[in-house]
Amino acid sequence: MASQDSSSGSDGGSELGRFLRARRTQTTPDQVGLTVGAGLRRTPGLRREELATLAGISIDYYVRLERGKETRPSPSVLDALARALQLDDQHHHHLRELAARAARYAPEPPPAPSRTVRPHLKLLLETLRPSPAYVISRSMDLLAWNPGGLALYAGLDDWPAKQRNLARYFFLHPAARGLFPDWDKQVRACVARLRALAGTAPDAPDLTALVGELLVKSPDFAKLWERYDVTGRKSAHKTFHHPHVGTITLAAQSMQLEGTPGQRLGVYLAEPGTPDHDAMLLLDMTAPQPAARPSATDEANPHTPS
User: Fold this and answer.
1) Which of 39, 79, 136, 301 is deepest in the core (most CB within 10 A)?
2) Average pLDDT of 250-265?
3) Which residues, at least 6 apart from 4, have a Cβ–Cβ distance to it below 8 Å?
4) How far is the C-alpha of 279 from the C-alpha of 271, rounded, in Å?
5) By the 8 A CB rule, do 41 and 25 touch?
6) Distances (CA, A) of 281 to 94, 156, 260
7) What is the pTM of this model?
8) Which ranges in the chain belong to alpha helices (H)?
9) C-alpha span between 68 and 132 (Å, rounded)
10) What is the per-residue pLDDT for 111?
């Protein structure tokens, strides 16, 4: 990744320091009950010495943590910093994961992500119709989909299959902002998901390539990436202003798939008999349909023209 705040290196201490600095600069004195005197503060958020005092540790020790030179903070220090920064449970857990990684002498190489979708999962996608559904990788690549699952993201089918990635779509496709009435919320959740992954698997090639591209091409992404938010809970329902079927609100469900690390199934649903269900049916019927399976004769003669 081509940014000083990227996660391209294997230095766990630096990643821990980046996280602490990001949370410190976004925590104001008022939030933690500090009285600030008159005058201009050059530092956004808390100063290092203020955070160290709140956490009950020395300023020198905290500076070493933030600069990545101290890589083995105790659990009590981590908990004190989490309290001082008023971290929620998810950010607190992420802080512990970063510290555990920083303490290792040799970082574990990230597992190579599989892009292969098993045949029975493709069959599952078909059986879920007319509900839009897809299989997605840990870095948000679309690996397989049914007609509605692709058509729901208007214009995504304009891109080649290997380029179809939901994070790339949110930030770089011209149709994305108009599709989501809550685009700001959607992209914050997207970046938080990628940030959480980058903290524990910073050398993952699929992630570094994607984040590097978005840092260069999207100022919106770069600004959110700098914040280092890792809490991005998804809404139970999503509304789309779809150019072909109108406004449609669907229940969203996502689940981890067994036997394929990093792959998830995403499904959208609507109550039968509702306008949203009718719009979902229309989307499924009008979307480009999958190619028919080859017959036994075609399989025996793969070069036979269709």
Assistant:
1) 136
2) 90
3) none
4) 11
5) no
6) 41, 19, 30
7) 0.72
8) 12-25, 48-55, 59-66, 75-84, 89-103, 119-127, 147-151, 166-172, 176-179, 183-200, 205-217, 219-227, 275-286, 296-300
9) 45
10) 58
